[in-house]
Write a structure and sequence with these properties.
- The complex is a heterodimer of chains A (about 300) and B (about 280).
- Chain A is built from 6 helices and 20 strands.
- Chain B is an alpha/beta fold and about 280 residues long.
- Chain B has a single domain, classed as Rossmann fold (3-Layer(aba) Sandwich).
- Chain B has 11 helices and 8 strands.
- In chain B, strand 3 and strand 4 form a beta hairpin.
- Classes of the chains: A alpha+beta (about 300), B alpha/beta (about 280).
């Protein structure tokens, strides 16, 4: 069978399935294989098991009802069993989210729930829960023409020779219709992530950083009942806790050994990058003010 | 109590006394200190957080009906310990195949809070920063949802409320589990008796009369309102000034025109009569 080769998050994927959202690569050294096949309902001796997923140190199964079952093993193999009459697009959507998250955890890559952008001075990451404004804030910076996208929603950090780099992800950013309309984008020409959901993949091939970028700052986003946008520099243990609390799908961490590895990586990251808390009002579209606050903090 | 049936629903149309009851519970079960910004003892059924932890996926990438199916199935398969309180504004409706929207196999009982819809109209309008006219229209709309916008991120699942009368009837007209109806006006008039009857007699929770008296005192409206002024209230809707506004019965007379009153009565007279609001 013909294999498609892709490069994302610092890994080379060889896939039976066409994954058009991932940048293609020429390398013949494969880190991860993506295959179609049957996925069992149970794994051996899971240490965590919920109604929808189970995991052990080197095995993980996720069931997304009506779409597919995903199995991730040994940090190098993803098996997908798609349900009949499911759209390919839907199968890929949950592959790139939760199945990739499980893969990164098995490999000890500590995925952060963050979107990262880059300008000539380095990369800055926006971390936070769903709905915190990671993609919206990043998009408002990219729209100035001075920043490019490194990775949306999942940020993979690489610690080498005393430097922290962010690995490039996929060359698009996912945005809700209200954000795109606020930026006067014509959504009628855009592809939504699923047929019934008004969240879109906004293509950024021409504003994408396809090489690892050195990280200079992380902004942790949240919203509160307040009128102004506030930016607070963070020091000490709060920095550590913020980073640990923003690990993507932390319920998929594969055990104590990985947790200790993440502690060490967190400590290393925090020695190298500045950390801020960025709080916006709950009400209203304040992406312009948030963007200005960020730019001000960089100068 | 059967161990598998661990859930107690705190069900209501918005602005009907649910949060007051939850504050009483938070006080009774407090470990160290009582804080209105920590009512986690009774999370809302529409919160995405719990489901995302259990399901391991981004539920905003599901359609609303997929999300409702997922939520039901996760709740049906998750064990818990009595009493597990859940706040809910959804009407008691059914998914495809006549399955109730909540896990009745895990449900012990429900407390249903009802308040004069004329006062609800004023309070709900203020709370959601909408006009009273629009609120009255929504209360008459059997297809009324909370959090149903498909265009933007929402940290809650959509909630079908039906119209105000339909909401009351949906919760009180089924026979899956016992439902105790509390009138907000009775809670105001005699809180100690109502909370004692509900917590001790109906739900068989191990509280003494003095615990209830202490909780009622600590959660007096002026105390909750003062706490909100001092520290804010995270459950408040973004557009509204204060969650704890007045909390009294009959305030509608100061806000609603005769036409508005007639409109509410026209829409809801039968249920209003049943609960002595007419």
């Amino acid at each position: 069978m013909k294999k498609h080769l892709y490069n994302a998050f610092g890994l080379c994927f060889a896939s039976e399935k066409d994954l058009p959202e991932l940048p293609s690569c020429g390398s013949s050294v494969t880190d991860v294989s993506v295959v179609m096949g049957s996925v069992p309902d149970q794994i051996a001796q899971p240490f965590r098991k919920t109604a929808r997923y189970q995991l052990s140190e080197n095995d993980f199964i996720l069931q997304v009802a009506g779409i597919a079952k995903y199995r991730v093993q040994n940090g190098n193999l993803i098996t997908i069993e798609a349900e009949k009459e499911t759209s390919e697009n839907d199968v890929r959507l949950f592959l790139y989210g939760s199945a990739f998250a499980a893969l990164f955890h098995q490999r000890g890559m500590m995925p952060l729930h963050a979107t990262t952008v880059y300008n000539n001075d380095g990369a800055i990451a926006f971390a936070g829960n769903s709905g915190a404004g990671k993609s919206t804030t990043s998009f408002s910076l990219i729209e100035t023409g001075k920043f490019s996208l490194v990775s949306d929603d999942i940020t993979i950090l690489d610690y080498k020779e005393g430097k922290i780099h962010v690995q490039p992800g996929m060359p698009h950013i996912k945005l809700w219709a209200d954000v795109l309309e606020h930026s006067s984008k014509d959504i009628s020409q855009m592809k939504n992530i699923r047929a019934e959901i008004q969240k879109y993949r906004y293509p950024l091939e021409s504003q994408f950083t396809d090489a690892p970028a050195e990280l200079r700052a992380i902004y942790f986003l949240s919203s509160q009942h307040q009128k102004e946008v506030t930016l607070i520099p963070v020091t000490g243990t709060e920095k550590f806790n913020l980073l640990q609390n923003n690990i993507f799908r932390s319920q998929f961490i594969t055990g104590r050994e990985m947790q200790e590895k993440y502690f060490r990586l967190t400590t290393a990251v925090l020695q190298k990058v500045q950390v801020f808390r960025l709080i916006r009002p709950r009400q209203g579209m304040t992406s312009g003010e948030v963007r200005d606050k960020v730019i001000q903090s960089l100068s | 109590m059967e161990e598998s049936k661990h859930i107690i629903w705190l069900a209501s149309y918005p602005k009907s006394g649910n949060t007051w009851f939850r504050a009483i519970l938070a006080y009774l079960y407090r470990n160290e200190s009582f804080d209105i910004n920590n009512l986690d003892i009774s999370p809302i059924y529409s919160s995405r957080t719990f489901i995302e932890n259990e399901a391991g996926i981004d539920t905003t990438e599901l359609t609303p009906s997929e999300a409702e199916e997922l939520r039901l199935s996760v709740f049906e398969q998750t064990a818990g310990k009595y009493p597990s309180f859940f706040k809910i504004h959804d009407a008691f409706t059914y998914l495809t195949g006549s399955r109730p929207i909540i896990p009745v196999n895990k449900t012990s009982a429900a407390v249903y809070f009802i308040r004069n819809p004329l006062d609800v109209a004023v309070s709900f309008a203020y709370h959601s920063a909408k006009t009273v006219e629009k609120t009255i229209e929504n209360m008459g709309n059997e297809n009324f949802f909370l959090a149903s916008s498909q265009k933007k991120y929402n940290n809650q699942f959509r909630q079908l409320l039906l119209n105000w009368s339909g909401h009351v009837q949906s919760w009180t007209g089924h026979s899956f589990f016992p439902v105790k109806v509390l009138r907000y006006e009775d809670m105001l008039a005699d809180p100690h008796r109502i909370f004692s009857e509900t917590l001790c007699d109906f739900l068989h929770l191990p509280f003494q009369p003095k615990d209830i008296s202490e909780a009622v005192e600590a959660c007096r409206f002026d105390n909750l309102s003062r706490m909100e002024k001092e520290k804010g209230f995270r459950e408040k809707a973004p557009g509204c000034e204060a969650f704890f506004r007045k909390g009294v019965a009959g305030d509608y007379k100061n806000h609603l025109s005769n036409e508005m009153i007639e409109s509410v009565i026209r829409d809801h007279s039968s249920v209003m009569k049943q609960y002595k609001y007419l």
